[in-house]
Amino acid sequence: MDPTTPQEACFEAGIKFGTLYHQFAGTPVSPTSSASLETAIEEAIENQPFCASVTVDILDDALAAELDGQSADYTELTGRFMDVEMDIDYEGCRVRASMAMDGDYPRMRVDSVES
Amino acid sequence: MDPTTPQEACFEAGIKFGTLYHQFAGTPVSPTSSASLETAIEEAIENQPFCASVTVDILDDALAAELDGQSADYTELTGRFMDVEMDIDYEGCRVRASMAMDGDYPRMRVDSVES
Amino acid sequence: MDPTTPQEACFEAGIKFGTLYHQFAGTPVSPTSSASLETAIEEAIENQPFCASVTVDILDDALAAELDGQSADYTELTGRFMDVEMDIDYEGCRVRASMAMDGDYPRMRVDSVES
Amino acid sequence: MDPTTPQEACFEAGIKFGTLYHQFAGTPVSPTSSASLETAIEEAIENQPFCASVTVDILDDALAAELDGQSADYTELTGRFMDVEMDIDYEGCRVRASMAMDGDYPRMRVDSVES
User: What ipTM does the predicted assembly reach?
Assistant: First the structure.
């Protein structure tokens, strides 16, 4: 069957999460550069169609703990180091989605769908 | 409202498309390396949860036309140079999605949803 | 033969340029998000060893011209849309390097080496 | 001072290493997909100017050990999971360079320079 509008809205939300993660995973990051990276990720993804807002929280405590146990004073951005929330507005349908650690896996999920 | 299973399945499809595009966009590519890149992209994305199959077709004619008009003998992978089809199988729901050029924009879309 | 210190310094400069380009190429960008992306790229790359400073100039005029001729109101970052300058300081050796368009190719080059 | 040919050759080697790492870091990878990814990385980077050969060895034992301790059956490619060797041939100067783990850090280094 053809997709419904809410299904297409959820597809759009997924695109933005995959984009966000795989565009920026691997970026050299430290507590001194995390604030500018948060802003740049938010504004980059908000360029994409139907993306009403993105909030990225790079977890400076998790970063600091990582740096404490290694030789270099920066690391690579990955799911363990950020929480993300996003609102998609697609043809009158509003999708909230988020990413956070679920045990050892960075879980992306749809939190709510309102048509 | 909480998402339905088909909505979550569409979200998963979107994640894979965003991943595929933004992990591999920018890869140096030419007609001699496009076959290995197709296979690697397919197998990389098929690692992700709920991804039943991925087919990537790098458009060698479009690549050749691009190289014909420029000084370097390779270019960077972008949406103009590939078609993608994908099957997602999420908790009994099957989603078909694809990416192809729509005018000048690489359009990702849900083609069908079967629960 | 083993590399000299200035040769290693140039290798380090090259690493930073390859990192910068291929980490951020493909990022969705528009004139409204280019300033935050410039800052984030600079601060990300300055995390890497021996990188004294990075200056990224995203070319808003080139971006605007690109958007003027297409359907979407953002594009993907690529070499045509940025100039980069970098200083590497490696064991007493200073390397200046830069990236700018050379015809249709984003040329990365070593501008000077001072030991 | 202007760079010498061997210094420029080392810069070119560095570009290829930064490209390789940051284009492909984050790619979903498992022991079943590592062979196609090795080939695609090698052929992608060999497209770049002055790159005579690239050999990528994705470390299946290290991958298997990582998967053994986590919930998902794939992980993201990063420096811990690959060794790389590269030959650059730039205006008669041959540079050998490699990447391997040095303690907890993926160290890229120039192994030899022959003019």
Answer: 0.97
